[in-house]
Amino acid sequence: MLAIARQRILGQSFQKIRPAVSVLRSYSSAAKQITVREALNSALDEEMSADPKVFLMGEEVGEYQGAYKITKGLLEKYGPERVLDTPITEAGFTGIGVGAAYYGLKPVVEFMTFNFSMQAIDHIINSAAKSNYMSAGQISVPIVFRGPNGAAAGVGAQHSQCYASWYASCPGLKVLSPYNSEDARGLLKAAIRDPDPVVFLENELLYGESFPVSDEVLDSSFCIPIGKAKIEREGKDVTITAFSKMVGYALKAAEILEKDGIYAEVINLRSIRPLDRSTINASVRKTNRLVTVEEGFPQHGVGAEICASVVEESFAYLDAPVERIAGADVPMPYAANLERMAVPQIEDIVRAARRACYRSVPLAAAA
Amino acid sequence: MATAFSVPKFAAQPFNPISPTSQQKPLIFPTAASPFLGSTRKLLHLSSSSQLNLRRRSSGSVFAVSDIVKEKKSTSIPSLLITKEEGLELYEDMVLGRAFEDMCAQMYYRGKMFGFVHLYNGQEAISTGFIKLLKQQDSVVSTYRDHVHALSKGVPARAVMSELFGKTTGCCRGQGGSMHMFSSEHNLIGGFAFIGEGIPVATGAAFSSKYRREVLKEADCDHVTLAFFGDGTCNNGQFFECLNMAALWKLPIVFVVENNLWAIGMSHLRATSDPQIYKKGPAFGMPGVHVDGMDVLKVREVAKEAIARARRGEGPTLVECETYRFRGHSLADPDELRDPTEKAHYAARDPITALKKYLIENNLSGEAELKAIDKKIDELLEDAVEFADESPLPPRSQLLENVFADPKGFGIGPDGRYRCEDPKFTEGTAHV
User: Fold this and answer.
1) pLDDT value of position A23
2) pLDDT at B428
3) ipTM of the complex
4) Of the four, A103, A286, B88, B411, which is 20 to 30 A from B284 by CA?
5) Is A90 marked active-site?
6) Closest approach of chain A CAs to the CA of B298, in angstroms?
């Protein structure tokens, strides 16, 4: 994993400016490693110090240092007026954040997990996403809703749902899902600076993972454009799209496939809404085969939208039916082995890619 | 509270004249049980609860605001509560609200207005009594019954009428409609269709006022927010969540309950375990006040104190205004469940007639002057309807506009550039 990361950084740095310095740095393998947690914390810290209108609110974000320690140290630095510990009132405090955003403040509302956002979804959709349209541009809502999304480890059905497709179907919202530290930093900064409501879907299991980052990423003005996907690995035989944790699995699957002579192109979506259809379609036109990977429920999911988009725009280029990998169509079970079966694993991605390349027999139609 | 069945005894007693400015007349109770038990019980309960309230207010209540109101009432010399200018302003505002809503009904039945239209007839005293005390920078958050709140806050009648007709000259360019009135210039931030949705947003607006003063150091920022909502909303979770947080953080907000006793067809008594809403304020640490919402002067007195309290930084207040809507819940509501006796009882307490009577009796104005105001409002509305009629419908290019403040949210097109950068973007097919 680290070897590939280093290779990638090498490849990137050769294309970047200041070749001499970066080549030296990569040879000495001193590319800085930060965890996703540190990336998010530093992004919040820098945005709060740059703009006094940015404030945090959520359960346990202050004195507890964050339920997942993402907001560690921020209460000491910025005080209780800017880092607000709220009572357990999702609907109430989300609405308060929206009302504050109506008047130009920039709240970053944390949901302990996005499952709890269902108690506040009226405010996310009806008073945040739709307000700019309903008021014909008079009232914009520069708010960010962030928190861990999707399955964790053994937390049961009510704490494991992935909300990417629910929020991504709503016009007026921007939905982002970072994978590594660079994504986390760049996208969170872009989200906080953005004048529209942004749903920022993190992943609890990625918080502790370290990724190498370049100096450019650590700069305080580093932002990633919203709406552009990233091609994490170039390939020519099959396109695999993924977001969040599944990007890591897709990359590992791509390595396994390489041994079979299948060169997979892995796209890290980064932005679920707006979806970067042009990158996806350009890649499919190059490879002619597509596998979409996501952790959420299969029906009406992100993969369904990507599949429809590709069929609409690049039908003539497809050599095989689009393969969708998603979580099992069941509420998340608790038992560890069942949970493993309910979430896509690397073998599933490999099998699907092989099917798309006609290297194995397709499964019978499921229920 | 379980006095509904003992009420016939009250009927025999004379009405307790605690407050000289009370305008309640003795009630006549229907002896035969009406087919709709809910409304009869409510009628009987009304007198008992208002008796209770009167008694409570006079017996040294703990609510800060009630004490002041009580003091005012106990002065034996009836001082005038308003000047002539204020009186005429209040009268004009209420007449505008009433005439506008009547015009809406007319236009709806002529097919010019469509969808959901919720009219405010009968409740004008609350809108006028509260909103006319605000500055321009203070905010108002309302529900779907928001036409008159918009008018009181200063949104021109033309803009509201065009918005209702769905024309591009409306206050939201026809994109909001009856239930979503927004005006950033007049600080009217909605207009929400979901009940209870406006309360947290209003609390957030109040929060932003406090934040600006304390964190951003804008020293003179003392904007107050008013949240208007109904009796049905007071059973909703968001209401309680916001009472808690507003009191916890001492936010400059006034929660105004327009208790018109009915949520579509659900009587307040059938839906609420403890129908006295003002009692829920002290449970969260803020004063709770009950006021007669059919009397604009009483409402104004209570509002003055509540708004001043918020502006001083002492925190929120919960004001329950007892009022009534003369029409149905919306223009589609056949309004069959409400007892005609109840409707007649409240129609006799029409706030506009009451104010008119007050102005004439206290020599603040004469019939002729008030009639002139009526005529002026009629002309204003004719002009508004004409303006709205002649305004154009929104063009096709408006469909995709204003979804995002930063329209890059529409993503990247097949040519690799942001879709919004293509000049033809909003004119082509709405294919995103």
Assistant:
1) 43
2) 56
3) 0.80
4) A103
5) yes
6) 30
Partner B contacted by A228 (CB < 8 A): yes
Contact A230, A56 (CB under 8 A): no
Q: How far is the first Cα of chain B from the last one, in angstroms, to the nearest whole number? A: 58
A192 CB neighbour count, 10 Å cutoff: 25
Q: Identify the active-site residue in A47, A110, A159, A305.
A: A159
Contact A100 B173 (CB under 8 A): no
The pTM for the full model equals: 0.81
Please answer whether residues B54 and B19 qualify as being in contact, where contact means their C-beta atoms are separated by less than 8 angstroms. Answer: yes
Q: State the average pLDDT over residues A163-174.
A: 96
The residue from A46, A90, A182, A232 that is catalytic is: A90
Give the separation between CA A333 and CA A357, rounded to whole angstroms.
32
Question: Which of B138, B117, B126, B255 is closest to B193 using CA atoms?
Answer: B117
Token pair recorded at residue A86 = 């709220």
Residue B379 class from Cβ within 10 Å (0-12 exposed, 13-18 middle, 19+ buried)? exposed
Residue with tokens 């507003």: B246
3-state secondary structure of A56: strand
- Name the residue among B220, B221, B222, B231 with its Cα closest to residue B255: B231
Q: How far is B404 from chain A (nearest CA, A)?
A: 6
Q: Indicate yes or no: CB of A95 within 8 angstroms of CB of B408.
A: no
Cβ contact, residue pair B200, A98, below 8 Å: yes
SS3 content of chain B, % helix, strand, coil (to 5): 50, 10, 45
Sheet harboring B188-189: ordered strands across? B182-183, B188-189, B139-141, B225-230, B253-259, B317-322, B288-292
Alpha-carbon distance B202 to B227, whole Å?
6
Residue B406: its pLDDT value, please?
85
d(CA B178, CA B194): 13
Nearest chain A alpha carbon to B432: A274
A250-256: list long-range contacts, CB under 8 Å, 24+ apart.
A250/A293, A250/A349, A251/A1, A251/A4, A252/A1, A252/A346, A253/A346, A253/A349, A253/A350, A253/A353, A255/A4, A256/A346, A256/A350
The tally of CA atoms less than 13 A away on the side-chain side of residue B267 is: 17
